[in-house]
Specification:
By secondary structure, the protein is α/β, with parallel strands linked by helices. Helix content is 42%, strand content 12%.
């Protein structure tokens, strides 16, 4: 069970929603929510916000990011298996929650695989987020949708895509990414996710 299941921790995150280090990111979220019909979660203040050295990009916000159902935040402390796996990988790589700002290829809540048009719509929010992260060292792209999102960004905004020193691609941290009848392929995917985080951790090392 992750800490978002604890009322005291969740309240702490809610009260820090506009703390200085996450205010620019969460104000961007507010603007993106106002500009369309869809909702998206804020980034939890346990994360690095504009001070982050790592940007993680996944597919789309999961159910545990919803208000009421979950925390209302993107957070590795959300009470779900994907967040649990993410935190375990980060811990092994020596990457703290405060080193990271989480994001999604399609940042609005749909809880489904984004269509091509939705991935295209996610490029501009990603570009704007990248410009808010002056300390960015590495981008970790987790899953095919994240890979596609970055490819679209690189094509449209190559100057922005060059901002991080390192861009790493791997599988999504969900259990679904491991669904295959071949145990060797499954083990290789597990190892690939681990190695990707270790590469990111080395990039942050002094």
């Amino acid at each position: 069970m992750r800490r978002m299941a604890e009322a005291s921790f969740r309240l702490e995150q809610e009260q820090g929603r506009y703390a200085p280090h996450v205010r620019p990111v969460n104000e961007l979220v507010d603007e993106l929510c106002r500009s369309g019909d869809a909702w998206m979660p804020h980034v939890a203040p346990v994360h690095g916000g504009v001070k982050a050295r790592v940007l993680t990009v996944l597919r789309d916000p999961g159910p545990k990011t919803q208000v009421g159902v979950g925390s209302g935040f993107l957070c590795v402390e959300n009470d779900d298996p994907t967040a649990q796996t993410q935190m375990e990988l980060m811990a092994e790589a020596g990457v703290a929650a405060g080193d990271v700002t989480p994001w999604n290829a399609y940042p609005w809540y749909i809880n489904a695989a984004p269509r091509a048009a939705q991935l295209e719509a996610g490029v501009e929010p990603l570009r704007r987020l990248l410009l808010l992260l002056p300390r960015l060292v590495a981008v970790l792209l987790q899953g095919n949708e994240a890979h596609s999102s970055w490819d679209r960004l690189t094509k449209r905004h190559p100057d922005v895509a060059r901002r991080p020193q390192l861009v790493v691609r791997t599988f999504h941290p969900s259990r679904g990414a491991l669904h295959t009848p071949d145990p060797d392929i499954r083990a290789a995917r597990v190892a690939h996710r681990r190695d990707a985080w270790l590469e990111v951790g080395r990039a942050l090392a002094p």
